Structures are given as C-alpha cells and as structure tokens.
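Notebook entry, structure prediction.
Reason for the run: the old model in the group folder had no record of what sequence produced it. Starting over properly, with the input documented here first.
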Amino acid sequence: MSNIRSLLQSYLDSQTLPSHEVLLSLLEGCISVLDSENSSYRPPDEQKKAGGLLDFTSPEYDSLPVIIVPDLHGRGKFIMDILDFEIDGKSVLSLLESGKIIVVCVGDIFHSEGRGRERWKKAFLEVVAGNLTNEFLTEEMKENLSLLEMVLSLKSAFAGHFHILKGNHENILNEEMRARHGNVPFCKFCDEGNMVRDFLQHTYDDLILHEIYCFENLLPVCAAFSNCVVSHAEPAVFFSREEIINYHKDFSKVTFALTWTANDTARAGTVEHFFNELLPEESRGNAFYFSGHRPVLGKYALRQEGRLVQIHNPDVEQVALLLPGKKFDPENDIVEVERL
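New structure, fully documented this time:
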C-alpha cells in the first residue's frame, strides 16, 4: 500500500510531463484490464466485449461501502485526499487493497474548466500566436496527465474495486461523432478540446492519442448497486439493461444520453425506469440515482422528483458515501475529503 501511494504521490508532485514510455505502459496496462474485466460485475456484450454496465446488485456486494466521486477535471489532489479519507478508522486506500470498498468515479479526467479559466485564456492567446507548447497549456497538461497516470494505476491495481465511467470530456480526439460514439467536441472558454489534442500529438505522437482514445471507449457508462445507479450525467431517456450492456452497438444513443444531458432536458420518470430495470425489487423504493456533469452550489441538487442526486461541486472535494445497511441521506452522507 505504501508503495502505490508513493507512486501516486510522485505523479502528483512531478514538475514535468510524463515520459512517452511511462504513459504508454500505463495506458496499455489499463486497456488490458478494461478489456478483460470480470463478467461477474461487468457483463459482456453480444460480441463478448466488456459491456457498458457495472452490475454490483448481487448480495455479495451489499457489505461493501461505496464511494461515488464526481467529475475530476485535473484534480489529482482530490484523488489523494479520497484515498487518505478514513471510514471506521481505515483509509480508503487500505480498503481498496483488501477488497473491502468500491470506488466509482463518474469521469471527466481532463480539462480544469472554471478553476483554470484564466490559464485557458492565456494558453489560447499563445496558441493563436503560434506557441502550442506554451507555459500555460503545459501547466494544464501536467495536471491532466498526472491525474490520468493516477487513475490508470488505480484501475490496474484494483480492477474490481476502482472504476471510472465515461464522461463527456472523455473525447481526446475532440471528435464530432455523436452519430457513432456519442462524442461532441468540447469548447467552453476558448478551444480547449482541440488545444489538448494538438498538444498531445505534438508533445507525444499519434500512438499516445490512439491509446487514450481506446481507453476512453472501453470505459463503462453506468453502474448499478442494490441501492443506487450511477452515470456521468442525468439519463436523458430510458434504456434497458441489454441496451446499456451493448452500448458499443449504439454509442450514439446510450453514451450521449448518459454523458451530455443538460438540466431540465431529461424525460420525466427516466430514473424510476432505471431503478425498475436494474435494481432488486425490494430496494427500489429507497434507491437514489447519482450523477455529476452539471455543477451544483453547495452539497447537491435534486432532480427527478428527488430521486436523482447531482454531486458535482467543482469548488469542493466531496464524495457520496454509501454505507452498508444505512439509507443514504444527502445532507449527511455527502462528505468533504479535502486535507489542507
């Protein structure tokens, strides 16, 4: 445990970009893990590929605490603080190592968004002037890539207990492929999506871009536990269990609807349909649906008649903590993990 924590801390503390060799090795290792996940919790699709659903609804998982992590956006310290957070006197990292917890991140590994607003603007001016590898974009990419190193390492080390869902920012090529992959280009303050792609291509090569792309498209899009369902965004429409598992068959519908939903655009009753489709009958009445994607003020926002909990506050290091045998209470069970 001390070894992996030291490794993760070294990624966070690094003052340089990761080497091509290290990044490629981590990506290849994690891709192999994602491509061969245990079918007991990640049912394969019709083509025997890893499906889009993480299914932890069987009773064997009911004794494990669950941590749901909102959008990451380059916040490597957030990951370290989660790992150091204690539950009943044991750190999350020690619980991961002993297989006694499940951590689900809702995605969005890259792009600092509002936290880096001024840095993005300065980086854009430099890029327009012809300086792609300027200090501002380089600093942004140090954060993004160190976090990616951490996430890849954790997934590879704790395959069955540390998970990342695909978010709308998992689109490294910044492609407009809504009709095939559910991807939409990202541009918030300037031209972030294209800038990140071009920086990686220039600093590394097409191979690194391709490996990140493969990693992104192997990520699941939904997780179900006996008392909750999780996806990056509020589900825009309802899908059957089979449709979620076979998300590769129709990325355009499933992935887009679970990663890009704006507030007040989801079909009414969708969450209730997901509960009925994915959860044991006896637990549906007390279940919650968790999502990130759209920022909230304070701890959370409720949607879908109070059954969906949005937990992405980009200014706070907070997670949803679900404890065995305890009904989730958003007031008390959304907890801050930040260490000063």
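Summary: The chain has a mean pLDDT of 95.
The old model has been moved to the deprecated folder.
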